[in-house]
Amino acid sequence: MSKILDRVRHSVFQGDRRRKALIMRAGLALVTLVLISFPLVLQTPPVGLTEGEPAPRTFRANRTVQFVDEEATERARAEAAESVEPVTVFDPTVLAEARGDVSSVFESFRSVRGAYSEEPTATLVTLSAEYPHLDSEWIEALLAADETTFNRSARASEQLATTVLSRRFSVEEMDSVYEQVNESAQSLPMSPPIRNAMEEIVSASVRPTLSLDAVATEAARAAAAESIDPTVIIKQVGDNIVQRGEIVTSDHLEIIRRLGLLDQGGSFPSLAAAVLLACVAVGAALAYLWRFDRPVFDRTRDVVLVAVLLLGAAWVTRAILWFFPEVSLYLLPVPLPAMLATLLVDARAGLLTAVLTTVVGVLLGFSGGASIIAMLLWAVLAVVAMSFMTDRPRFFHVGVFLVASGAVLAGVATLAGGSGAREALSAAGNGALGGVFAVVAGYGLLPLFEHVFGVTSDVRLLELASPAHSLIRRLMMEAPGTYSHSVLAGNLAEAAAEEVGANPLLARVGAYYHDVGKLRRPEFFIENQTGPENPHDSTTPSLSAIIITAHVREGLELAKEYRLPPEVVDIIEQHHGDSLVSYFYNKAAESETDVAVVETDYRYTFSRPQSREAALVMLADAAEATVRSLKKPSPTRIETAVRRVVEDKMADGQLHDSELTLADLEKVMQVYSKMLASVYHRRVDYPETKPRRQVYAHQHH
Fold first, then answer.
1. 686: buried, middle or exposed (CB in 10 Å: 19+, 13-18, 0-12)?
2. Which CATH architecture has domain 461-679?
3. Bridge partners, 68 (sequence order)
């Protein structure tokens, strides 16, 4: 009944803990959204550019930009439309109307020729008023001419009008037409006054034979404007936009605005959309961790760390845009957040951080086009490179890789954006420098993050796993039996951790150090005893139990002295939990004394395993020691012994807080049984080989 109640309380406690964890994740997501919104909506100070004034400093393109210059395009199309000649059509009625006008004038003169002989003055006044453009002398010459001359003048004038109006000309060509009329009229064999009168009469009747077709002209101009391609402005990364002291034009301002260097605020709809996208990104990140990386989702510290890296990337990028708006993207330590996330959390968190920092760069307007792909690939390659880290000195090799990959990606992305070889080489140089910055910053920030967040990175664990570590060397030299036992336990725990989804490296390193407390009195532990004497034979069971259980406390003291990370310290403390030292407890119970044996006096006084790794080390420690004590080990007996160890720990409640499931424990038992059977299998007794000298003597005998 008590076990059932314990399980109920445990499940309730676990449910409350999960609810609190979910509430905490939601609160963290909200805080992250609020903090990441500020750099998205925060406007940079104005750059101080005024059209028509000298530029206060040189502005360069921080990324490749390509856009249509609407104003320049409109100007070009207007010029093309204006360059189109007006469309005209030939008017055949002009000639007939002109001939009619000429004929009408001469008919008027003919009708008053008789009256002129009777009343010359009155007739002359009347015609002068009717035709004010004709000189009175010219009128008088026509009226006074004989009939033959008058008729010949009339016919010649009509012929002259016909000759002139038989060709096509527009209003712009009227001057040349008047000159032709003048030349033709003055060449006629008439008196000068009559020639002048004919010239003026014909000129007054002449008008353009070509008239404007407004509809066709508008269509032609529209077609000409449409044929003009849009004016495209292209600025490559690093190109100068305006030099310091150069007069700023509207084109300069437009390019700078397009690059996001004029102001970073943007309109309210664009800012709201950016914040909404940030919300979606944060929500998707939490969903990804919950679905594909549950251990990280369940550790508040890891979620906070990823959020801090994301916020750091956003705020640092905004600060750089604030003070150096034209800086190249590739000069930044782009892969740094993904590097740190991989080292401090895991590779999945590193990939997630790579995607999130790329999204942040896009939302801040810091990258576009092929540079987005380059930035993402660079961060992903950093995650891959970090997975090969085995110690801090390897940072150099990783750094070389990141420098080379940054240079290649920057150069290729610049070429893909349409730039030339010179711009690509410049971008490659920036990418190499960005890689250097990332490695230097990562090397400096890693210990800081480890200390602030209490994180034990894989790099730190790999250093602790090295036989060159001073505490491992002490264990090897001063307690070689404990060292061998710890190495074997480490191999067991690592293999089991891989099967159940725990941290294999942490399990192995924790097993290496779980018994370092035995360095204080190694001879009291059977694996270090080489002779027939056992110090426990001369001590009471209670004192032996105190000595045995003290190795955990003494191990914690050594861990503090050697500054072992918290995760390893937890395994040292929890690898026995509050389990019973059964050997000495049974020995005390069987002794013939009147002193009552209290079970709690023979138990460890430390926490039960709180993690899967600590539980795996506990089981590996007990299983290896139990199997090592078997008289005639066989695979069946070894498996039975391992199962008995696991079942005893379960019955004693040592595994309740470790989150290992029954399925996990079944996998652990199979792994431990198989590996221990391969180590402690029964060996063949080989016959003793006789000395070579005896064999030789026997042969000669």
1. exposed
2. Orthogonal Bundle (1.10)
3. 232
